[in-house]
Specification:
CATH architecture of the largest domain in chain A: Sandwich
CATH class of the largest domain in chain A: Mainly Beta
Order of helices and strands of chain B: HHHHHHHHHHHH
CATH topology of the largest domain in chain A: Jelly Rolls
Strand content of chain A: 25-35%
Helix content of chain B: over 70%
Distance between the termini of chain A: 28 Å
Number of domains of chain A: 2
Largest sheet of chain B: none
CATH superfamily of the largest domain in chain A: GOLD domain
Number of strands of chain B: 0
Radius of gyration of chain A: 27 Å
Structural class of chain B: mainly alpha
Distance between the termini of chain B: 33 Å
Radius of gyration of chain B: 20 Å
Number of domains of chain B: 1
Helix content of chain A: 40-55%
Oligomer: heterodimer
Shape of chain A: elongated
Chain lengths: 207, 272
């Protein structure tokens, strides 16, 4: 019985040590560096534009996007290269000779409807908005899609920076939140019994 | 049935004693902490560069990058357990107390080795596998073979070094001396391996690398998955997959022979 308590207790203390290491890794500050230069563009009503980022992303390397726009825009983070979007759209144009339609949002909606698994995130933005995108998996290519679903043209400008982290902070913290209390629960009986044993041996010595 | 229970209890007793000795609080906790921290810190450069792609080569590079520091910690932990666990028992003659248990000598050594090697290996692999699945699950699930071979080869080399250290400990019966020899051997092999690579690249001969691959099969696995030129010099030896398997298997055969020799020595020749 005593051996079992020791074994479970030591598993608990090991889990706590691992949890502590994960917390420490998640607390290491992230680094950020500018990637490319800022781009300014005017987007006509019901049109979209693409900005491919030629970088591979992972749970330890993401992007920070800052965008300034005068009207509402919808931004999609798409996990593939821009050529895949344009080639699909040009193959599925309702009128194959009308190339002006390939930049229109209805074609984008048709494309995204068929490739939902590659849409990593989407959000509406207006004014100055900043957001981070750190994928949970390895992505070789990422494309930002800016779509203007409004009735008037919009001028926008965006800046990209690369975020570097030692570990996937959020994931590590979640694991540490589970592992550390579990370790504490497992270690508690062993710590209590060890303290009692120590106390009783001290009392015996005094007597 | 009764006989196996009769033997099982003293075996567990010795195993438990060895565990207490090898992993006195907080040694195991410190090593688990270092394994976890080292794995993530060492993974950092891999995921920041352009190496992180979905390919066999990338899977192999990721595995070797992740196990960089933790592998050294693993080897040091095994060295400590062998030299100061078994070594100090021989030096202080406390091994005689263990010989008084109703157990054959080879079972006593097995209990000691299970504590010294298996527990260290479980903590090492447990941390590594969890980190691999946490950091890049898609690389591991798409290319499990290079990842598995990288671990198999490196653990084989670590076991080879440990078997030599165990042999030295049994022969000299002095843990401190054995661990010094072990560390010298560890660094000497690393230097010899570097020399073998230089000879291969500059002298256009491949046998030094082949010989080193028997001791450390990580060399041949590395050559198979990263066959491109190193510092502008092309490798003379591009092994086939079957050759890789043969060298890894060969290393484990040598490890098995060395451990068998240790068992034989411990069971029949060791006198106190």
């Amino acid at each position: 019985m005593n051996r079992l308590v020791t074994l479970i207790g030591r598993i608990g203390t090991v889990l706590m040590a691992v949890g502590l290491a994960l917390v420490l890794v998640s607390l290491i500050p992230t680094g950020q560096e500018t990637y490319g230069s800022s781009y300014s563009q005017v987007l006509a009503a019901s049109h979209f534009s693409l900005a491919e980022q030629f970088i591979s992303l992972s749970s330890q390397r993401g992007i920070h996007v800052k965008i300034q726009t005068d009207n509402e825009l919808r931004i999609y983070v798409y996990a593939n290269h821009s050529m895949s979007i344009m080639s699909w759209i040009s193959e599925h144009l309702p009128d194959p000779n009308n190339y002006s339609q390939q930049d229109e949002t209805f074609m984008l909606d048709a494309f995204l409807g068929n490739h939902t698994q590659l849409v990593e995130s989407e959000r509406n933005v207006v004014g100055i908005v900043e957001f981070d995108y750190i994928p949970s998996r390895l992505i070789d290519d990422v494309t930002l899609i800016f779509a203007n679903y409004g009735g008037s043209s919009t001028e926008y400008q965006h800046w990209i920076s690369i975020i570097r982290t030692v570990g996937p902070g959020q994931k590590l913290q979640t694991i540490a939140e589970v592992v550390m209390p579990l370790g504490l629960v497992l270690a508690a009986p062993w710590v209590i019994s060890a303290t009692r044993r120590k106390r009783s041996s001290t009392t015996k010595k005094e007597v | 049935m009764r006989r196996s229970t009769h033997k099982g209890k003293p075996f567990l007793e010795i195993f438990s004693l060895a565990l207490q000795e090898d992993y006195r609080f907080p040694i195991l906790e410190i090593f688990a902490f270092l394994y976890s921290l080292g794995t993530f810190i060492y993974a950092y450069p891999f995921f920041q560069g352009y190496a992180a792609t979905l390919s066999e080569q990338s899977a192999y590079s990721m595995a070797t990058t992740l196990m960089g520091l933790p592998l050294n910690i693993f080897i040091i932990l095994m060295f400590k357990n062998i030299a100061y666990g078994i070594g100090s028992d021989l030096e202080k003659a406390t091994i005689q107390t263990l010989f008084s248990y109703p157990l054959k000598r080879h079972l006593i050594l097995t209990a000691k080795l299970l504590s010294a090697i298996l527990v260290a290996l479980l903590v090492f692999l447990g941390t590594q596998v969890s980190a691999l699945y946490l950091l890049a699950p898609e690389i591991v699930s798409s290319y499990p073979v290079p990842v598995f071979l990288a671990y198999l080869a490196n653990v084989g080399y670590a076991l080879f070094l440990t078997a030599i250290l165990l042999l030295l400990t049994l022969k000299t019966r002095r843990g401190g001396l054995a661990v010094v020899f072990g560390l010298i051997m560890y660094f000497a092999i690393a230097v010899i391996q570097g020399i073998a690579s230089v000879i291969e690249y500059l002298g256009h001969i491949d046998w030094p690398s082949r010989v080193m691959s028997i001791i450390n099969p990580a060399t041949v696995v590395g050559k198979y998955y990263t066959s491109g030129p190193v510092m502008g010099l092309s490798s003379q030896w591009v092994p086939t997959f079957n050759e890789v398997l043969l060298y890894v298997f060969g290393c484990y055969v040598i490890v098995a022979i060395l451990f068998a020799f240790c068992y034989r020595y411990f069971s029949r020749r060791l006198s106190l």
